[in-house]
């Protein structure tokens, strides 16, 4: 476990999955602590896929592979590359085991940079192979609801850097989306109310096409509690359906699950990224504790 610390925040990161483990301000824990009764993870990286592939199968050059939801990097041990009081970097490289289920060699680097009241999460994906590689990458941080009370139904609010016409694509079957079915989020005075049953019928809100680049979780009094800023083209918002869970996830994605019944090549997936030999893809998102 590596610890980053300044006068405002104390942050911890594990080498397993290079996963964020804790964000503490004034003795208060903002990051969900992984109670398996609700959801046993905290902030896993999603690589080399985001979400689900149809029937847990995908194809490269006509050959079929199997892949579980959100890929395998979150369950692998990363190598610590460097660490200071304010920044830490980890690396994961492809192995014969990963190549058997994902046929492209890769180098995945994940960094965390602490500055003031914010944590920047940085990703670098490098293609060391001789052919173009295709991949997706995403975040899945879970944040404790402010002032959570299991006996009440109100949880707080979301606000965005855009407040009108916010559209979510529908998750329909086996964790995949119906690309022809969307719906508008229920925005009231610029806010989306969050309740204990908000995700019971939708599983998740999935906003694509760069509709927003900032999501703020607000307390019951509508004051800002935590903000996630990003350039990713897709963001997922999720809390476990029908569990009255004490947390909600704000997930910037460079990728998305398959559409229902998709049986094309991996390189034809929606929101897939292509990387030329020797090239590096770089991206980041920032968690701001208000």
Q: Report, as a whole number of angstroms, the end-to-end distance.
A: 25 Å
If you consult CATH, what is the topology? Beta-galactosidase, Chain A, domain 5
Strand percentage lies at over 45%
Strand order of the largest sheet: 8-9-10-11-25-21-20-15-18
Tally the helices.
1
> What form results from the Cα inertia axes?
globular
Major β-sheet profile: 9 strands, antiparallel
Number of strand elements? 25
Task: Give helix % range.
Answer: under 10%
> What is the CATH level 1 assignment?
Mainly Beta
Q: What is the average of the pLDDT values?
A: 97
Rg calculated over all Cα atoms: 19 Å
- Which regions have little confidence, pLDDT < 50, spanning 5+ residues? none
User: Any idea how many domains?
Assistant: 1
Based on the coordinates given, report the CATH architecture. Answer: Distorted Sandwich
Helix and strand run: EEEEEEEEEHEEEEEEEEEEEEEEEE
Q: Which structural class matches the secondary elements?
A: mainly beta
